[in-house]
Amino acid sequence: MQSEAMIRAVNPSPSLSGPVVLHAPKVRRSPLVFASPHSGRDYSADLLAWTHLDLIALRGSEDAFVDRLVADAPRHGAPLVEARFPRVFLDPNRAPDDLDAAMFDQPRPGATGSISARAAAGLGVIPRLAADGRPLYQTRLPLAEAQRRLDVFYAPYHTIVRREMEAARACFGDSVLIDCHSMPSSSARGADIVLGDRYGASCSRAVIARAEAAFRRQGFAVVRNRPYAGAYTTEHYGRPEAGMQALQVEINRGLYLNELNVEVSGGFAAMKRAMDAWIGEMTEQAGDHRSAAE
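Below the sequence we write its predicted structure tokens.
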């Protein structure tokens, strides 16, 4: 169990914010909507009470500090949806029924008995394993706790994401969700950035080409869809034919993070400047919303 001092060190003012925060621009100037679903670090006492692992083990599941890397999106006229709850307790990039029934003290009403590959691997919407493969829990969780997390964390996050995408579509005729993540340097396969569009299914060729070109102008090595093509968010929101697109962005953590102790490295400031420039270019180009739907 972590001390209150350690909890405050991660999240100095947990009482000042809800589990999901919308950072809205003063004026919406772009059909882009940015989201940071996995950088939450609000390890409140009620969440920590469920697990026996220490804070560093829990934080290994974060896309740590991605929210800070993309924090200037509103300045460029695009909203940013930030999940402040930890991914290790609830993963909004999974389907709401992506649960491993064996984790809970009773069957879920209406459950079919089937289980997804992600949930079977311990990485469902309520994760069973930490990033290092250790079990998060020593006993089964109450099914009521799973429902509480879905109600308190998951539902508000997706309500805001969908609302912002629909608002962008209403203003510009279409909307583009930029789902922001980071990847362990060990899985990056030499890439600085991996762009995921589910092999062309979740956004137009024009959008991903524009994103790739803008990253390359910042000097990054960029690949598409390997090893990360996108998960629930890109699949669920990426409907180009309906004027709603989704692109996943994975940033190599080695560029800005000390991965062992989950602290920013000396490269963080340069990475933030590069991301700010990339966001500026993307929002400016997307201002001509008609070309984003090509």
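The chain is about 35% helix and 15% strand.
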